[in-house]
Design goal:
The structure is a single chain. This protein is of the alpha/beta class and 294 residues long. The chain has eight helices and twelve strands. The strands form three sheets. A six-stranded mixed sheet has the order 7-8-9-10-11-12, with helices on one face. A three-stranded mixed sheet has the order 1-3-2, covered by helices on one side. It has a three-stranded antiparallel sheet with strand order 4-5-6, with no helix packed on it. Strand 5 and strand 6 form a beta hairpin. The longest helix is centred in the C-terminal third of the chain and has 34 residues. The radius of gyration is 32 Å and the shape is elongated.
Length: 294
């Protein structure tokens, strides 16, 4: 037993398990040097003196870092894996704007001014717990965890489809009928959170085709089926694309719409005449006598 312990001690102290280099995996804006300094690890440290718990504690002192784990290869390189949290959405809580990442972690409080540097949407109708306060460095205190989970999935899908910077609003009031507003003023109906990436890719293709035509503002793009897009242009765009010239020159679709409008107008006139005749009869029979009381 003594011999085994002695062998292990020699092994632990040998150069084989010394850190010869440190690699950071997952950083975007944070520098390698800053992350290494936070970790507390230095070249020459013994591998057996490094623990996941200590690394997590040290590195997550920076709220932008989520520690994922570490690896050590035969060359003596220690790889530290992190997820650098990015501001992907904005939430208004109690009159203040907060920047959050995809998981709902609060990264910054921007005060009463909207943080226009965030490449992501304002999140509407996210119900917060009235008895809790929003704290930077912690997750949003929501009343319904399902809402936060849906927000997380939508933001992740927006990021993976390169749509994050093209969306200005995400509404999660109804989780079965969520929708987005694009920076160009189009409304994208997502429905529920199933097949979000497919839905967003379909919507993106519609925007690519429609944006050069200048008909996106006020339009509705329904991709809730995850199979196709149902595109409904705005009223102004429909009017610009299909003006109303002389009746003989109407396209078929416009003539159908006009015929329908005329039928409705005739029906409305019939009902109006009937209503007037009924009122006169009621007055004559004395069923209502407001004129006599006046």
């Amino acid at each position: 037993v003594v011999a085994v312990l002695a062998a292990l001690l020699v092994l632990a102290c040998s150069q084989v398990f010394r850190v010869r280099g440190i690699l950071i995996v997952g950083n975007r804006n944070l520098s390698k040097e800053d992350v290494i300094a936070l970790s507390g690890v230095q070249e020459g440290d013994n591998l057996f003196s490094i623990s996941d718990a200590e690394l997590k504690k040290n590195m997550e002192r920076n709220r932008y870092i989520e520690y994922l784990g570490h690896e050590f290869d035969y060359r003596g390189t220690l790889s530290l894996h992190i997820n650098e949290r990015m501001g992907m959405g904005v939430v208004n809580a109690f009159g203040l704007y907060y920047v959050v990442d995809a998981t709902g972690m609060v990264l910054e409080c921007a005060g009463s001014a909207y943080p226009d540097t965030v490449a992501g949407p304002k999140i509407n109708n996210l119900i917060l717990d009235d008895n809790s306060r929003v704290t930077v460095g912690e997750r949003l205190p929501v009343r319904d965890s399902g809402q936060l989970a849906a927000v997380q999935r939508v933001l992740a899908a927006l990021d993976s489809t390169d749509m994050l910077g093209r969306v200005s609003l995400l509404d999660v009031k109804n989780l079965d009928n969520m929708y987005l507003m694009t920076t160009d003023g189009a409304r994208i109906v997502l429905g529920d959170d199933a097949k979000l990436e497919t839905k967003l890719l379909i919507a993106r293709e519609v925007l690519v085709v429609r944006e050069p035509l200048g008909t996106v503002k006020g339009a509705k793009i329904d991709v809730s089926s995850a199979r196709e897009a149902h595109y409904i242009p705005s009223t102004a765009a429909r009017g610009a694309l299909h003006p109303h010239p002389a009746a003989d020159h109407h396209p078929r679709s416009d003539r159908d719409a006009d015929d329908c409008a005329l039928r409705n107008a005739r029906n409305l006139k019939k009902w109006t005449d009937l209503e007037q005749n009924l009122l006169k009869w009621v007055e004559r029979t004395g069923i209502i006598g407001y004129n006599k009381l006046a």
